[in-house]
């Protein structure tokens, strides 16, 4: 109980101080992302004799595809999250494999307004631009007592449970098999610092009493590597406006449809020479 009281007092103290200068507060945070991949493709192994070493190489290629760097530009209630262009690498391919990512996020611009609880996400899918506009859902975070340092900032732990759809395997040899997906409950762990008084974070994460510096959902990890507070050049947040306007659920349906189309197209191309295996992943 005593530790809990100390944490509450610390929160109140830091938040009161934050309120004094929050109206002018702004900054830029840099995040490095990675994703753990472990696709089991037994049907490929059986039909084409792909050994364990080649499967491991493919998993390594997939992991490399998701090692990216993003910037989060923020003011008290608005933020823009986008991928750094210098790290937008070409599609990796090796040993007859080509990894294709549908909507890989390289040109995406995610705007969040935590005061109005809404977002706008500008994305390009197969050459067509979409503007996904919807509400920011409350995440239902549970504040924990655990703390740690990320860089120079004292961070507090928060967790939440969510259902997440994951691809467990995919066949590129059968004309009938669809990628095997599972839905499972996962615990998302976030680390936030009240020393940076904004309630936003990387990607779609937000809603904690301080900037979120790290997020891990068991598969994907996002870690802040650098923060510049109140830079000399004043920050201007611009909400994206380009693209066909759609709601989040509609965009998901479009992505599912495009994903199936790409799988069918890949199977058709494979019948021509059989020398290349393409793994398509929805972004």
Structure report:
- The chain has 283 residues and is α+β, with helices and mostly antiparallel strands.
- It has one domain.
- Helices cover 24% and strands 41% of the residues.
- The chain is built from four helices and 15 strands.
- It has a twelve-stranded mixed sheet, with helices on both faces. It has a three-stranded mixed sheet with strand order 4-5-15, sandwiched between helices.
- Strand 9 and strand 10 form a beta hairpin.
- The radius of gyration is 21 Å and the shape is globular.
- The C terminus is likely disordered.
Number of strands: 15
State the helicity in percent bands. 10-25%
Structural class comes to alpha+beta
The SSE order reads HEHHEEEEEEEEEEEEEHE
What is the count of helical runs? 4
Biggest β-sheet, characterized?
12 strands, mixed
Distance between the termini: 44 Å
Morphology call: globular
Low-confidence stretches: 171-176, 271-283
Sheet-strand content, in percent, reads 35-45%
Count of folded domains: 1
Strand order of the largest sheet: 9-10-11-12-13-1-2-3-6-7-8-14
The radius of gyration computed from the alpha-carbon positions, rounded to a whole number of angstroms, is 21 Å
Give the rounded overall mean pLDDT.
Answer: 77
């Amino acid at each position: 109980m005593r530790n809990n009281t100390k944490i509450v007092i610390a929160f109140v103290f830091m938040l009161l101080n934050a309120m004094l200068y929050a109206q002018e507060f702004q900054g830029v945070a840099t995040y490095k992302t990675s994703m753990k991949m472990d696709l089991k493709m037994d049907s490929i192994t059986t039909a084409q004799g792909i050994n364990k070493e080649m499967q491991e190489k493919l998993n390594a290629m997939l992991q490399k595809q998701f090692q990216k760097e993003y910037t989060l530009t923020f003011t008290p209630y608005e933020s823009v999250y986008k991928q750094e262009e210098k790290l937008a690498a070409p599609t990796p391919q090796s040993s007859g494999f080509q990894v294709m990512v549908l909507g890989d996020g390289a040109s995406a611009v995610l705007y969040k307004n935590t005061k109005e609880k809404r977002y706008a996400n500008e994305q390009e899918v197969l050459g067509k631009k979409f503007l996904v506009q919807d509400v920011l859902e409350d995440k239902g975070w549970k504040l924990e007592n655990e703390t740690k340092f990320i860089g120079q900032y004292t961070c507090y732990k928060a967790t939440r449970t969510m259902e997440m759809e994951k691809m467990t395997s995919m066949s590129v040899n059968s004309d009938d098999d669809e990628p095997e997906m599972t839905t499972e409950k996962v615990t998302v762990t976030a680390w936030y610092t009240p020393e940076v008084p904004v309630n936003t974070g990387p990607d779609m994460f937000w809603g904690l009493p301080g900037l979120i510096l790290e997020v891990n959902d068991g598969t994907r990890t996002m870690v802040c590597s650098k923060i510049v507070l109140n830079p000399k050049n004043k920050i201007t947040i611009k909400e994206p406006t380009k693209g066909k306007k759609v709601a989040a659920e509609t965009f998901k349906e479009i992505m599912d449809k495009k994903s199936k189309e790409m799988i069918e197209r890949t199977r058709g191309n494979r019948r021509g020479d059989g020398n290349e295996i393409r793994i398509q992943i929805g972004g």
